[in-house]
Amino acid sequence: MPNGQWIGVLPEAKAPASASAAAPASEKIATAGERHRSPHGDQPVRLPSRFASLALSLALLSVTAAAQAIEGTVTTAGHPLAAARVVLWRTDTRGAPTALDEGTTDAAGRFRLDAPIAHTDGEILYLTSSGPVGGVVLLSVLGGNPPEQAVVNELTTVASAFTHARFIASGAIAGDALGLHIAAGNLRNLVDPVTGTWGRVLLDPVNSTQNTTLARLNTLGALLCAFATVADDAWRADFLQAATPAGGAKPDNTLDAAAGIGRAPWAHAAALYDLFDKAYPRGADGGRRGAPFLPYLDYVPADFALILKFAGGGIYSAGRLGIDSNGNVWSGQSWMAGSQSSPMRNIGGGTIKLAPDGTALSPPITGFTPMGVDGIGWGTGVSADRVWLAGMDGRLGLMDLAGRPLDEAATPPFATGELGGLMGVGVAANGDVWIADGTRNNLLHFPGGRVADGRIVEIDGLRSPFGIAVDNENRVWVGNSGSDTLVRFPADDPSKAETFRAGVSVRGVALDSKGNLWAASNMSPDFPPPAIPDGASMMEQIQILLNHVKDRLSPENPTGVVDMIRPDGTRAAPMGFTGDKAISVPWGLSIDGNDDVWVGNFWGRGVVLMAGDHTQGHGDGTRTGDVIHVFQSGSIQMVSDVAIDPAGTVWIANNLNDIAAMSTADPPRAISTQGGGDGIVAIYGVAAPVKTPLMGQVRRP
To answer: pTM of the predicted model, to two decimals?
Structure first.
């Protein structure tokens, strides 16, 4: 192993404010020394003076809370790492993390640390290991309820750094409590911190074979191995440079490097792969490399994003996504899982709920179907404590966040047959709920979210209304899927409606923190629009649209635009943003905490990251509307929507998959259940976190 001197980057331990008054410092150190165990046995170890604040904290903890032992192993390249410093940390939502205990690994890489059983709600525990090679820092996040056994290695470091990428700075983890818990829960999908090996979701058949996340994780882990073992100083310097995101500081250790790659996994993907190739060259016969983890990437990736797909709970042809106050993911499904549905023959699907870690919480196949609502397109909305559902058959549904139907929605103040095919649900910051009637060309308004006060509102200029957003001035924005316009009006005076030009067939709309309205239009202004008759059902409209565009499009000839309309009504780009042909029939979009724009690129089978009105954190010369990156994967199909959660995870709705299966009157039987998209997909750590649920303009946690 190369020689090197450890360069300290870990944050200083934080002493409680009352520690100095409790007892003399020398007594605190002695008390901590009695509790601090050597990895070679039960002999007490006296802590150096620079850890006095740590000792003081431990002394107080021994009085206020019982402790549990955490035993574990530190390895690199699969071998025990001796003489490594291991520190147990607790996050603090108010500031820097606190060191709880520390030790040094023995010749077998083993350590034993004490953790308080009782700790403040909203905090998580994690382990770092440093040395003896300079710049090597490993990480394993244990979560809110730490296990008794733990492993710290390169795979736990990559998985922890990517899921917590938005909370890591200078070797420390800190941030919003909900975001940290979501990140810690998702870590286990990639790597098990107890064993240091692959996680359960990564190993399922959907992910282990249908995407390259396993190979990406292993390749990144191999790069960290190389840093500690086979690399020279020049290689290490190149690796740290390649791990530097645009506008960010160059890391000086492997933990911050992994987090830097996680925040922008596209930034230097080719350079990172070249370093992998140099560290583990392929044999002359084209055989296996000497990399420590198999499988690894065989081809240069477009990015190193860690992407997982989740199935079950009735997921099939997901429409719009909504994330609640606890980080759960909700979505209405156009069709029922397992069915041979298409726009011509279909069985409506229910509403699905995923836990923040992607675990299905809704019933299998049918999902939730409150008030008989099934067959949902864009009609999913989440308010402070409720989930609103608007069916394409004109039915309304309302549930609490546990999925229980709420009786008040059973008797809405509308006559039978008075509602048409319902689409978008918009929730205002004040709790008002607006729902688009896509076939009757009007809106439903529920002041304060009260069903009994609901009313139908006629608005000039609506043409098959689809997406809805409400700004901080309580102005309602509505996208017209049946035209090239959006409508805006004051919520308290709908007669003052204004019309704004956009692309053809406006779908998803979203508001950034400045009040700019972003809209995705299926077709460009110069693209011939389809002829959709008035009163056509939503399924008929979708069928007409797909038949209209499928023979006119190619990678060289895409269509569709993303627009930004400022609060003063001016359009940022005269013809909308096309992303230099990266945009292809966009559908839904979301804004993250940095005001960047994430676009569900329907025909492009991917997600487009576009610079918003705030370009900080991107390369010099980046302008509003520039495409930063396009994410694609074997797990990503024809995307209807994207949503950002409080941990910076991007959630993706696979709406359609096989065009032949869903646009043919008599499809081949082998693909007849593949017309709808299967699964909801997560990309970890790539977005700036947001506060959920989305009510009004985007907000940071």
So the answer is: 0.90
